[in-house]
Amino acid sequence: MTQLNNQTLASLNGKLPIPAYRLAEQKPQIGIVHLGPGAFFRGHQAWYTEQALQFGGDWAISAVSMRSPDVSQALTPQDGLYTLAVLDAVQSYQVIGSVQEVLIASEQYSQVLARLTAASTKYVTLTITEKGYCLNSSGKLDLQHSQILLDLTGSSQPVTAIGLLFTALAARYQANIAPFCLISCDNLTDNGHKLRNALIAFAEQKDPVIANWLSQQLLSPCTMVDSITPATDDAIKAQVAGVLGVQDNWPIKREAFVQWVIEDILPADRPAWQQAGVIYAQDVTAFEKAKLRLLNAPHSTLAYVGCLLGYETVCDAMQDKVLTQFIQQMINDEIMPSFTPPAELDVRQYSNDILARFRNPAIRHLLAQIAWDGSQKLPMRILPAISDNLAAGQAIDKLAFAIAAWCRFIVKRYSENEKLIDPLAEQLLAVAAQCSGNADTDVALFLAVDAVFPPQLSLNKAFFSAVHTAYQQLVTRPAAALAAYAGVI
Ligand code: CS2
């Protein structure tokens, strides 16, 4: 079967939407560098930019992976082209052409630096996952992080996104080129401000003149991003090959729902993202809290409780009436009261729509994938709701049940000798190795992981007690524990 690339693209015209600008004499030049070309980026920001490119502008994307060669190896033979399959009540397919190239920083450093320092590069967007920011439990740059320490020595090319961005911005300063605008697209609370502060903290260690310049000039809006975009599997590759009639090495699948809210501080010179559906807001905080707490918190809860109950996908877990009753009660009783939603948001409808999205039978979203990196995700999506409820004297039992389920998930991974995908995996598995099933000691061991649980939580008696009660019940009979918490028995 022939390959999807610039040569075979024209043959697809009429079969599905294709990036016609790729066939024109005058092609869009690169104006955006993206760090972290994973599935979510390719289903979300790259799609928004694809739609924006229909309105013109030099906004093609140079996608950069820090180390992994996989995406480059798959897409370079395809001239960056790939298929987006939208799998929902209605299925649709679109060839995405906004990614012009995929580089690997560890192997093509000079090319990556050239892209980042080019005056034509106006934006750097990021999906490097929570761990990529190298933050401590207070949300600030961890200056003791091993890779940050390595980049601060400057003895080799940067290994962190922060180190790479600093090096590029310092070169732009020396060349009297304005900084690019940073756009974090990760599920972090206050993502843009945390990224900006981390970069300035790094600069203060390296060169206070650059730090001062960045504090004056660097734009880094907060954002909220949303679209359920599971990892690509062989099934979707075969499905796309059948539709296109050409081979796509790495198509992307996602649901129909997609949303991008950006703090409205971007320069006027920007891609036509608004025409593509991006919402610009003065304050993204309420949108971000609504999404992290009403989508990501239930997602993680489904992942850990669902894995303990033996479910494989979100859709499978959503068939369990006791589990969905528990999730609904957790949302109603503990998550909704924990924050103030955007005035314009019908938060009940928003939450109901999210649960309907979870039930989408066309999307096979693995619970084990959502369970990755819990030490980085829970401090963004569940612990803040617990802290807010504790401060307000509100209930936390069901949220604490989710934390206890995460602990038991780690013990399960350890006892079954299964890989734990988490930047703190070694530390967490060492805790699991000491667990005996006695909640008194086990919960104390987990809450002592201070990179996850700040002192205001780990020393909070109400929090310890809530996690302890849930943990003890989960040790012996997870299903019965869930039923009890859902009020079924
Ligand atoms: C998921 C998110 O894997 C996970 O942690 O909760 O990737 C989720 O699918 C997206 O945030 C949805 O917008």
UniProtKB/TrEMBL annotation:
Could you tell me which Pfam families the record lists for this protein?
Answer: Mannitol_dh (PF01232), Mannitol_dh_C (PF08125)
Which keywords label this protein?
Oxidoreductase
The UniProt record lists the Mannitol dehydrogenase N-terminal domain at 31-274
InterPro entries linked: 6-PGluconate_DH-like_C_sf, 6PGD_dom2, Mannitol_DH, Mannitol_DH/Oxidoreductase, Mannitol_DH_C, Mannitol_DH_N, NAD(P)-bd_dom_sf
Q: Domain named Mannitol dehydrogenase C-terminal: which ranges? A: 283-474
State the source organism's domain of life.
Bacteria
Q: What is this protein called?
A: Mannitol dehydrogenase family protein
